[in-house]
Amino acid sequence: xxxxxxxxxxxxxxxxxxxxxxxxxxxxxxxxxxxxxxxxxxxxxxxxxxxxxxxxxxxxxxxxxxxxxxxxxxxxxxxxxxxxxxxxxxxxxxxxxxxxxxxxxxxxxxxxxxxxxxxxxxxxxxxxxxxxxxxxxxxxxxxxxxxxxxxxxxxxxxxxxxxxxxxxxxxxxxxxxxxxxxxxxxxxxxxxxxxxxxxxxxxxxxxxxxxxxxxxxxxxxxxxxxxxxxxxxxxxxxxxxxxxxxxxxxxxxxxxxxxxxxxxxxxxxxxxxxxxxxxxxxxxxxxxxxxxxxxxxxxxxxxxxxxx
Length: 308
Description:
Elements: H1 22-39, H2 43-56, H3 61-74, H4 77-90, H5 95-107, H6 111-124, H7 129-141, H8 145-158, H9 163-175, H10 179-192, H11 197-209, H12 213-226, H13 231-243, H14 247-261, H15 264-276, H16 280-292, H17 297-305
C-alpha cells in the first residue's frame, strides 16, 4: 500500500450564482469541452479549450482550476501553481482549489505552504479527509512521527475502516517504538485488505523489531508467496533468520534479494551470513563488492572479519 497524494479530478463547478453573459456561456462551453478532452486523453486539445475559456472570460475560476489540474498531472508544476493562484484569487472559498494547490506546493518541495493549504481546505470543509491524510503524509515524510500519528489517529477515529489511515498510523507507531500497537493497527488493516503485501511486510518488520522472529518470518514468507519478486521480503526474512542463527537460510534469502535488486545491503548481508558459516573467501569477497558499490557500513565488517 503506497503512500499517496490524491488528485481531485478535473471537474466543472458552478461557483458564481449570477446571470450568465454570452461570453460566460461560451467560456463554460469550452471548459466542458476541455474536461471531456482531458478525460479522453487528448491533452493538447484540452489545454486549447481551457486557454480559449480563459481568453473569453478570465473571471471564471473553473477555467483556471481545471487547466491547473491538467498542468499538475503533466508535471508542469509552476504553470499549475500560477493557474491555481488565479482560481484562489477569484474565489477564496472553494475547497478544491486550496487542496489542489497544496498538492502543487508539495510537488515543488514547499511543504510549509502545502500544509497551509491543506489546513485551509479542512477549515472550509471538515469532510475533506484527504487533506488531513496529506498533512499526515507530509509530517511522516519529515519524520515528525508524533504529529503524523495525531493526524492519522483522527482519521481512524472518524472511520475505523480507513485502511490507509490505519496502515500509516501503524507506521508512525513503529517509528515511535510502539511495536505491539503498530502490529495491532496492521492487523486491523489486514482484516480489511487481507492480501496487501506491503501491510503484511510492515507487520513482519514490526514483529521482528519486537523480537518475534518466527512469526515475522511467517509474514515475510506470505509476502513472498503473494509476490515472488519482492526483494524487501527476502531481505527482511534473511535478517530474521540471521538473528535466529539460521545462517544458511539467511544466505539463501540475501542471495535472492541481491538477484532481484542488486543492493549493496543484500550483498553485505550475504557476506556476513557466509562469514558466520566460516566461508571466509566468499564472505569477504561480498563485503568488498558492497564497498565498491559505496556501502560504507561494509567497511567496518571487512576490517573486523577479513584481516588478510
